[in-house]
């Protein structure tokens, strides 16, 4: 996305939204297409909603023109949000749809959260529950208004400012967990093996520290190294303005966080190699973050998380640019204290005890379910036996009463009975058949003769 310096540019770059640049003195020039870049997740829980809103706003020429001419203060104080009333109808319609989808997603998250906590709520007040989300207006859940854009910008500003701090805290916990596991592993070894393993680990640590000198990020030595080894140019002809334009890869007039971090690759390669056992790639990414923060702190004077050409050139005039202090890497600057590690280990023990209690509760519930299953199986067998006995008694009763036996469903079953004639009856002569046309008795109306 090729906007002038502004806070919203940070959001679009962080969200990985890139588009075709607009030539303000274009004439008949065709826009230069840029290679699509990989989407970068901001880490915000509403990242997708943020990116989609920006993409839709980009499609409106009027809003994009206003954004190009707006400064950081205009974006932060909400003046830019008022321009939303002038965007085209189809843009507003699409924004309304995005907001309804986001509200629906948040409702599902709330319901899942309530279900997971076993909270029985027959009538949930979604309007009040949605108030805990600050990036949209919960009172209007159907249309995207200027207030929604203002809330989205202000909330993302605050969240992104805290994002780096959260990453540092996450890395600290990672390092403490790694040290905790190392200590627990050594505890499980006997004295001889423990001493041997401790010696091996110390040798790996010492080997990691034996790396070339790391230049201070943003110093002339560091930039000249990139100029020579990455750009392939003569270090004696180093020019800050040319350097800036070379590494403004999307040609938007600023160096964003990703473009800055790309400049530190050569320095990081001096310390970290993924092929080495002693080099931790998580530590490399933390080192990269520290380098970027150092440059932003000393160069980004307006604190918009972007480095403009003017800011960059002014930084080259500082004393620290030519004579910086030595850069201290993570191996010389621990990220936690022993007290913090002890508190972390106590927290792990508490969690472990809680997990054990839950596991024991689940085991007891499982045993109870097994016992209930056995009882149900015994009842089922007793029922089957009772059914069989009842069926047998019914058959015996029917046989005693001379009734035909009953079928499996209680229906009567008739069987053809064939009797074998006795021998006497078989040898007896057949009786003459009586003709049907002869009366069996004399007619009663004939006269009597004497």
TrEMBL record:
Membrane topology recorded in Swiss-Prot or TrEMBL: Peripheral membrane protein
Boundaries of every EF-hand domain copy: 235-270, 287-322
GO molecular function, one term: guanyl-nucleotide exchange factor activity
Residue stretches of biased makeup (Pro residues): 440-450
Entries under Pfam families matching the protein: EF-hand_7 (PF13499), NUCB1_N (PF25434)
Coiled coil: 146-207
Signal sequence, start to end: 1-19
UniProt-annotated location(s): Cytoplasm; Golgi apparatus, cis-Golgi network membrane; Secreted
GO CC annotations on file: endoplasmic reticulum-Golgi intermediate compartment; extracellular exosome; Golgi apparatus
Gene3D superfamilies: EF-hand
Renumbered residue ranges of the record's region Disordered: 387-450
Broad class of where this protein is predominantly found: cytoplasm
Keywords for the protein's UniProt record, in alphabetical order: Calcium, Coiled coil, Cytoplasm, DNA-binding, Golgi apparatus, Guanine-nucleotide releasing factor, Membrane, Metal-binding, Phosphoprotein, Repeat, Secreted, Signal
UniProt entry tagged with the keyword Signal: yes
Function: Major calcium-binding protein of the Golgi which may have a role in calcium homeostasis. Acts as a non-receptor guanine nucleotide exchange factor which binds to and activates alpha subunits of guanine nucleotide-binding proteins (G proteins).
Protein family according to the UniProt entry: Belongs to the nucleobindin family.
Quaternary structure, from the entry: Interacts (via GBA motif) with guanine nucleotide-binding protein G(i) alpha subunits GNAI1, GNAI2 and GNAI3 with higher affinity for GNAI1 and GNAI3 than for GNAI2. Preferentially interacts with inactive rather than active GNAI3. Interaction with GNAI3 is inhibited when NUCB1 binds calcium, probably due to a conformational change which renders the GBA motif inaccessible.
PANTHER family in UniProt: NUCLEOBINDIN, NUCLEOBINDIN-1
Protein name: Nucleobindin-1
């Amino acid at each position: 996305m090729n906007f002038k310096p502004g806070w919203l540019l940070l959001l679009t770059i962080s969200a990985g939204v890139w588009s075709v640049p607009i030539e303000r003195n274009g004439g008949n020039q065709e826009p230069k297409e840029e290679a699509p870049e990989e989407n970068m997740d901001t880490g915000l829980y509403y990242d997708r909603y943020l990116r989609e809103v920006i993409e839709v706003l980009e499609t409106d020429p009027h809003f994009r023109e206003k954004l190009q001419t707006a400064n950081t203060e205009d974006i932060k104080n909400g003046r830019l949000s008022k321009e939303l009333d002038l965007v085209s109808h189809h843009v507003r319609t699409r924004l309304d749809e995005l907001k309804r989808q986001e509200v629906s997603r948040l409702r599902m998250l709330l319901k899942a959260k309530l279900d997971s906590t076993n909270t029985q709520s027959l009538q949930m007040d979604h309007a009040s529950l949605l108030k805990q989300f600050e990036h949209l207006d919960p009172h209007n859940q159907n249309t995207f208004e200027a207030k929604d854009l203002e809330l989205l910008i202000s909330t993302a500003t605050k969240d992104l400012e805290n994002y780096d701090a959260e990453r540092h805290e996450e890395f600290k916990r990672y390092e403490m967990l790694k040290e905790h596991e190392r200590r627990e592993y050594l505890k499980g070894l006997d004295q001889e093996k423990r001493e041997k393993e401790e010696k091996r680990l110390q040798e790996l640590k010492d080997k990691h520290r034996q790396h070339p000198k790391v230049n201070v990020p943003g110093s002339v030595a560091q930039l000249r190294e990139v100029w020579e080894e990455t750009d392939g140019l003569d270090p004696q002809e180093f020019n800050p303005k040319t350097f800036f334009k070379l590494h403004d890869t999307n040609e938007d007039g600023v160096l964003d966080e990703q473009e800055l971090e790309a400049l530190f690759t050569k320095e990081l390669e001096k310390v970290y190699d993924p092929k080495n056992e002693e080099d931790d790639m998580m530590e490399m990414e933390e080192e990269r973050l520290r380098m970027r923060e150092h440059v932003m702190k000393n160069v980004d004077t307006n604190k918009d998380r972007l480095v403009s050409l003017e800011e960059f050139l002014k930084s080259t005039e500082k004393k620290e640019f030519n004579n910086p202090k030595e850069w201290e890497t993570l191996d010389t600057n621990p990220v936690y204290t022993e007290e913090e590690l002890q508190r972390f280990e106590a927290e792990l023990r508490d969690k472990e005890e809680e997990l054990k209690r839950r596991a024991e509760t689940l085991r007891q519930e499982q045993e109870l379910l097994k016992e209930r299953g056995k009882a149900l199986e015994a009842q089922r067998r007793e029922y089957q036996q009772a059914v069989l006995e009842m069926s047998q008694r019914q058959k015996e009763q029917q046989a005693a009463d001379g009734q035909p036996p009953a079928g499996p469903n209680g229906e009567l079953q008739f069987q053809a009975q064939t009797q074998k004639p006795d021998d006497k009856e078989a040898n007896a002569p057949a009786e003459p058949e009586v003709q049907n046309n002869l009366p069996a008795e004399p007619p009663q109306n004939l006269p009597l003769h004497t």
